[in-house]
């Protein structure tokens, strides 16, 4: 018996690197699970081999079996579990680090903006998720990506509550969502100093051990009827409109109440928390709606609300929601809303939400979820991406006398595996963190042009023609988009960083679930 377990232990140990090498290029999460399983199986077989070995004294057997328990106890006395990274690897932090008191912003006086910038700071705008037009392509004439000549300087840093929201920036304010105790908090901070201007609390708390705590969506700032408003969606489906200047609420709409389901019922279907950033089209606010098979109201993909009152204008679509935000695209000459849902992608008429077309795109919103935005390539083609070894595909959407047709142009499980992030199209190429590795793809053919460094499950933008990466481990990097080679990088945040970065004027805002930092990178 002991010999058999010894053979199994050796076999499992040999199998570990084979498993990693065979699965790493498919999906690193799968590779980690497989490799970790082999190592744990090997350790367990070694323990069993010792247990059943007749010549080993019982005292030594007990010592061998107690060693892992004592090692785990010693480790956990110094470190505490802090969550999982994007490849579902457990993360730990020193227990002393989690006992720090919340502080006011730490401001670096030497790096404050110039008087000319202070006069203009209210003009700097990053109005919503992925930038003012939601493409991830940022034209920022006052922001330098030439970091080989001068790295960005830190203006301020401050602690923040948990959550994966990014910043919207307008009128000199930076607005984000984060968790404080039992509420999701909308916070507006001064862009130049990080000082709190106002906060608005939305009661509720979403937590999942794999996805973490707090809100997921990025606020949207819009000017309507001469007033500037902030639109937010909580992880629990509260859509709210607030005054940008004061934080005073204008209206609120409860998506769970509309669908007639409880928080627990919603989270059975939408496990990782509602993450869509509100899309504003003229007088309407569009967000995914969802529902549950148990609810009498059924499941609906999208809902449109009146921007001035929050009144419901329409609901449509029958697919369960996913985690991407609604996108405004113009396909074959028709402006429409494109929605990535659980199991498919749909195009919707703006006025009524009527489904114009659909294309299958497998996923489960309580498992291998879709989180990436649909990306328009040309007048008829849309690029889709997803993690979990699914990869990407290009669809062509056309119409003839109002009848819509969708066909797959290509599909590739090896490219643009955008798990938590999005592809960005610039100068005819698609750039993305594909299962954590920066890559460039020719989107019309689906062929890879180059692979760059590994940055983990982070986020990226294309800024002034250069790739800006916010890596999962808290670094920021400037990368040449022609070669894929890093220009320069610097560590900024400590801990898992899944939040999208924001740029307005010469300022760059990055954050994660514990800290936010404002950096300054002006052109000379």
Approximately what portion of the residues adopt beta-strand conformation? 35-45%
CATH-derived architecture of the largest domain: 7 Propeller
Reading side by side through the largest sheet, how are the strands ordered? 3-5-38-37-36
Average of pLDDT = 93
Structural class: alpha+beta
What is the name of the CATH class of the largest domain?
Mainly Beta
How would a textbook summarize the main sheet? 5 strands, antiparallel
Could you give the topology of this structure?
Elements: H1 2-23, H2 28-52, H3 58-78, E1 79-84, E2 90-94, E3 106-107, H4 115-120, E4 137-138, E5 153-159, E6 168-170, E7 173-180, E8 183-190, E9 196-203, E10 207-208, E11 212-213, E12 220-224, E13 227-233, E14 238-243, E15 249-254, H5 255-259, H6 263-269, E16 279-281, E17 284-290, E18 300-306, E19 312-316, E20 327-331, E21 334-340, E22 343-348, E23 355-361, E24 375-376, E25 381-386, E26 391-400, E27 403-412, E28 424-426, E29 429-434, E30 437-442, E31 447-454, E32 459-463, E33 466-470, E34 475-479, E35 486-491, E36 502-504, E37 507-511, E38 515-520
Parallel strand pairs: 4-32
Antiparallel strand pairs: 1-2, 3-5, 5-38, 6-7, 7-8, 8-9, 10-11, 12-13, 13-14, 14-15, 16-17, 17-18, 18-19, 20-21, 21-22, 22-23, 24-25, 25-26, 26-27, 28-29, 29-30, 30-31, 32-33, 33-34, 34-35, 36-37, 37-38
Helix pairs in contact: 1-2
């Amino acid at each position: 018996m002991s010999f058999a377990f010894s053979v199994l232990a050796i076999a499992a140990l040999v199998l570990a690197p084979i498993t990693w090498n065979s699965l790493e290029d498919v999906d690193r999460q799968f590779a980690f699970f497989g490799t970790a399983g082999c190592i744990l199986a090997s350790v367990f077989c070694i323990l069993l081999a010792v247990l059943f070995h007749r010549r080993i004294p019982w005292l030594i057997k007990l010592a061998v079996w107690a060693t892992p328990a004592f090692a785990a106890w010693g480790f956990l006395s110094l470190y505490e579990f802090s969550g999982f990274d994007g490849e579902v690897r457990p993360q730990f932090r020193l227990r002393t680090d989690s006992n720090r008191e919340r502080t006011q912003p730490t401001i670096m006086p030497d790096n404050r903006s110039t008087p000319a910038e202070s006069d203009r700071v209210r003009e700097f705008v990053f109005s919503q998720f992925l930038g003012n037009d939601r493409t991830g392509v940022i034209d920022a004439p006052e922001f330098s990506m030439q970091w080989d000549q001068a790295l960005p300087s830190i203006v301020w840093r401050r602690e923040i509550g948990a959550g994966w929201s990014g910043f919207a920036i307008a009128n000199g304010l930076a607005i984000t969502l984060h968790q404080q105790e039992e509420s999701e908090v909308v916070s507006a901070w001064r862009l130049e100093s990080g000082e709190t201007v106002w906060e608005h609390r939305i009661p509720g708390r979403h937590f999942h051990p794999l996805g973490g705590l707090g809100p997921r969506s990025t606020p949207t700032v819009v000017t309507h009827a001469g007033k500037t408003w902030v639109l937010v969606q909580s992880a629990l489906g509260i859509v709210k409109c607030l005054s940008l200047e004061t934080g005073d609420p204008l209206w609120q709409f409860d998506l769970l109440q509309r669908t007639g389901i409880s928080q627990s019922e919603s989270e059975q279907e939408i496990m990782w928390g509602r993450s869509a950033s509100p899309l504003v089209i003229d007088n309407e606010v569009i967000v995914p709606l969802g529902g549950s098979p148990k609810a009498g109201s059924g499941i609906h993909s999208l809902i449109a609300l009146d921007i001035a009152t929050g009144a419901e204008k329409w609901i449509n679509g029958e697919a369960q929601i996913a985690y991407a935000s609604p996108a405004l695209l113009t396909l074959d000459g028709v402006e429409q809303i494109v929605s990535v849902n659980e199991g498919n992608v749909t195009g919707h008429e703006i006025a009524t939400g009527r489904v114009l077309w659909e294309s299958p795109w497998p996923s489960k919103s309580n498992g291998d979820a879709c989180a990436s935005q649909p990306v328009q390539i040309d007048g008829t083609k849309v690029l889709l991406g997803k993690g979990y070894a699914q990869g990407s595909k290009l669809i062509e959407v056309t119409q003839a006398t109002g009848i819509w047709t969708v066909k797959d142009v290509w599909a590739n499980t090896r490219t643009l595996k955008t798990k938590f992030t999005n592809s960005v199209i610039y100068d005819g190429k698609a750039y993305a963190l594909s299962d954590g590795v920066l890559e460039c793809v020719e989107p019309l053919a689906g062929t890879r042009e180059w692979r760059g460094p590994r940055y983990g499950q982070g986020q990226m933008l294309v800024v002034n023609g250069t790739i800006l990466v916010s890596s999962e481990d808290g670094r920021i990097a400037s990368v040449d988009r022609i070669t894929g080679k890093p220009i320069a990088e610097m560590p900024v945040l400590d801990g898992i960083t899944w939040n999208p970065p924001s740029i307005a004027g010469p300022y760059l805002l990055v954050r994660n679930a514990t800290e936010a930092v404002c950096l300054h990178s002006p052109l000379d």
